[in-house]
Design a protein that fits this description.
Blueprint (H helix, E strand, L loop, with lengths): L1 E5 L2 E6 L5 E7 L2 E2 L6 H6 L7 E4 L5 E2 L3 E4 L2 E4 L10 E2 L9 E5 L3 E8 L9 E10 L2 E10 L5 E3 L2 E4 L1 E2 L5 E4 L3 E5 L5 E6 L10 E2 L6 E5 L4 E5 L5 E5 L5 E5 L6 E7 L18 E3 L4 E10 L2
Length: 288
């Protein structure tokens, strides 16, 4: 594991545990949750404070999809959950390409296997500065033909300080009983986040569409602003009532996009030609 610091801000990066971070501290204030013991002791990526999502985000229904006339069955990668989830990168060991006191670049070379049938190269750079944490992501298609691609991040924020979330997005997917998107439409009044909506008042695991790339978390000394480049056109929001965390995830496509060829192009995964790269940057900026 690697510790990065800039002034009072510090993160611990774990290349060996999905290129995730175990936590982000600003002085004595936790800006993300602290990784659970099973993360550091057992290498459980799902217990981290933040990890990258690639080459797809969220779920693929029943861990199956069709692409260019071929059917693919993926390995289920989340216990007894019937879907594959969060991609490949979060469960792989990455290699350190470059590291300094306040920045690190990690790389991953993927060859086709049961988790994903298309070769790719990935790069994640964490840069810590006085203004915040920047996560830059690159995914390059190394397959011999066009392949689908998606990127995003999955941060876990603590519920301390009675947090509330604000962002602008005109559309949202409502889920079916299988936790997969079922209906797309305007955001209902009770899910509106144009003004700060307390996390304790929401029960979401939904993808908001047409997101403008900015979200604000109001949480006392742990308040943050999220700013994402235009490629991240969706925001997945997860506010489980049973947890001591919530998630606000910039992503490039809706869940299960591969199984929904009827989707408008702006909702689907990117299609990369051989050696083409999908890239984007997300900044998390303390404002407390």
């Amino acid at each position: 594991m690697l510790t990065l610091s800039a002034g009072e801000s510090s993160i611990v990066v774990a290349p060996e545990i999905g290129a995730g971070i175990t936590g982000w501290m600003l002085g004595r204030t936790a800006l993300t949750r602290r990784a659970l013991p099973e993360a550091t002791a057992g290498g459980d990526s799902h217990a981290m404070a933040l990890f990258p999502l690639l080459p797809y985000c969220n779920r693929i229904a029943s861990a199956r999809f069709a692409w260019r006339g071929l059917d693919y069955q993926l390995a289920r990668n989340f216990g007894d959950n019937p879907h594959s989830i969060h991609g490949v990168g979060w469960q792989r060991a990455w290699t350190v390409a470059e590291v300094g006191a306040s920045a690190v670049t990690l790389v991953l070379d993927h060859s086709p296997d049961e988790s994903w049938p298309f070769a790719f190269g990935a790069e994640v750079t964490y840069v810590l500065s006085a203004s915040g944490l920047t996560v830059a992501m690159r995914l390059t298609n190394r397959h011999g033909a066009a392949a689908p691609a998606g990127i995003g991040i999955h941060p876990y924020f603590p519920r301390d300080h009675d947090p509330a979330v604000r962002f602008n997005a005109p559309g949202v997917w409502e889920n079916g009983p299988d936790a997969l998107p079922e209906r797309h439409g305007p955001v209902p009044s009770e899910w509106q986040h144009a003004a700060f909506l307390p996390v304790k008042e929401s029960r979401l695991d939904n993808c908001f569409t047409g997101w403008d790339g900015r979200a604000d978390i109001q949480a006392g000394p742990a308040s943050l602003r999220i700013e994402a480049s235009a490629v991240f056109r969706h925001l997945q929001v997860f506010t489980p009532h049973w947890a001591d965390f919530f998630c606000v995830e910039p992503v490039t496509h809706v869940p299960d996009a591969l199984n929904r060829p009827e989707l408008p192009v702006e909702h689907g995964m990117h299609v990369l030609a051989p050696d083409e790269t999908l890239e984007g940057t997300i900044s998390l900026i303390p404002v407390g």
